[in-house]
Write a structure and sequence with these properties.
Elements (H helix, E strand, L loop, with lengths): L3 H7 L12 H12 L5 E5 L6 H15 L3 E7 L5 H12 L14 H14 L3 E7 L6 H14 L1 E7 L1 H10 L8 E4 L5 H15 L6 H14 L4 H16 L6 H11 L5 H9 L3 H17 L5 E2 H15 L5 H14 L3 E2 L6 E3 L4 H16 L1
Parallel strand pairs: 1-4, 1-5, 2-3, 3-4
Antiparallel strand pairs: 6-8, 7-8
Helix pairs in contact: 2-3, 4-5, 8-9, 8-10, 10-11, 12-16, 13-14, 13-15, 13-16
Bound molecules: adenosine-5'-triphosphate and magnesium ion.
């Protein structure tokens, strides 16, 4: 068995001790599950938002508190009817009876075995049908069709597009009894999830500013999915296992692995649009970030100081409106970003070293 810490990063079915910011949804789900009736529930929402983890968490909690309860989890993604039936059947019967399921059984035989197995247990049977979509709709429909007669509660999870299809294309008798939509998290909620996962998995503490930086980048380049946070954590986890502090540089490198943060040509293109003063200001900003090492953000005041210094060096009068314009231009180039948490804080996604290289390259072309 892999240690819990490692599982928190690498196991796609890991269940954290607490689900952050889904109290209302969890309550609703638990109410439906402990109902005496058998219900068919559909949980839907964007990919990576927490559908699987929420349903597994709710069912695991119920399993702890109720003894006459049989939970079954089956992931539908890329599976055929036979594989799914085999998995459901083997989850219901104990290992002593596993031999009773012939490996070469046909579909109707597997379905009949399922009916018999279901009747042989008195427990409440809850099946999580994780990730239903076009490829496995046949089996989803069949289970829905027979669920009331077989006395089963089902929780299906689906992405938004397929949930719409269920509403449009499944007949009225196959519509779920309940639906639960999982919406995007707010900025601070997403940061709490990052925080929780880092605390659960990382061997030593990670600075709060680094956690905020990572969340900022995911909010900027993605719709703010926890799954994307975990993807970045996967890439920096080995660094932390070596006992090395996580630096902004590590987050920048891990993000550029996942998003096309910038390719060199588009960086050169966007720099061609800016004025000489803005170019020089960016150079100063990149140098400060290079010195910082541990700090991912620069405040507006710090940028203003660099701007004043630049004008002093060039012996020109400063104009605060011009700083405002330069900042707007830099934000437009996509080389400088404004924090989603504090509008007076700024960060870069490309490493400072890379920005300085590109600035040198474009300076000669533009201003010689
Ligand atoms: N509220 C939350 N609290 C803690 N962790 C969360 C929360 N929501 C999501 N996660 C974590 O985010 C990751 C993605 O969640 P999950 O796999 O459940 O998403 P999903 O909606 O099922 O995605 P997909 O549509 O791709 O199947 C998991 O590691 C999960 O543990
Ligand atoms: Mg899922």
């Amino acid at each position: 068995m892999i240690p819990q810490r490692v599982a928190a990063i690498y196991d796609p079915l890991y269940i954290p001790p607490k689900i952050c910011h889904r109290e209302k949804e969890l309550q609703e789900l638990q109410k439906i599950l402990s109902d005496n009736n058998n219900n068919n529930l559909l949980i839907y929402g964007p990919s990576g938002i927490g559908k699987t983890v929420l349903s597994r968490y709710a069912v695991a909690a119920l399993n702890k508190s109720e003894s006459d309860f049989t939970p079954v989890f089956v992931n539908f993604c890329y599976k055929r009817f036979r594989e799914i039936m085999y998995q459901i059947n083997s989850s219901i019967c104990d290992s002593a009876h596993l031999g009773l399921i012939p490996t070469g059984a046909t579909l109707p035989e597997l379905w009949n075995i399922f009916r018999r197995l279901r009747r042989s247990i008195n427990n409440k049977l809850v099946i999580i049908l994780d990730d239903v979509d076009e490829n496995n709709q046949q089996i989803h429909r069949k289970i829905l069709q027979e669920s009331k007669e077989l006395d089963i509660t089902t929780i299906a999870t689906a992405k938004v597009g397929y949930a719409r299809k269920i509403r449009r294309e499944y007949g009225t008798s196959l519509q779920p009894d309940f639906t639960l939509f999982l919406d995007l998290y707010s900025n601070t909620e997403l940061m709490d999830i990052t925080h929780q996962r880092v605390n659960l998995a990382f061997p030593s503490p990670v600075r709060p500013s680094i956690i905020r930086f990572l969340t900022d980048i995911v909010l900027e380049f993605d719709i703010g999915r926890p799954s994307t946070i975990i993807e970045i954590l996967k890439r920096i986890y080995p660094i932390s296992l070596r006992g090395v502090d996580i630096l902004p540089l590590h987050i920048q490198e891990a993000s550029s692995d996942i998003f096309t943060v910038h390719d060199e040509i588009s960086m050169i293109d966007s720099l061609a649009q800016i004025s000489l003063m803005t170019h020089l200001l960016l150079q100063k900003i990149a140098r400060v970030f290079q010195k910082y090492l541990y700090e991912p953000y620069m405040s507006l005041n710090e940028i203003k100081k660099e701007y004043d210094l630049l004008y002093e060096e060039l012996k020109v009068q400063t104009d605060s409106r011009e700083l405002h314009e330069s900042l707007k231009d830099l934000l437009r180039t996509g080389l400088l970003y404004q924090s989603h948490f504090e509008p007076d804080m700024f960060y870069i996604v490309v490493t400072p070293q890379k920005i300085l290289e590109i600035l040198d390259l474009t300076f000669d072309e533009k201003f010689e």
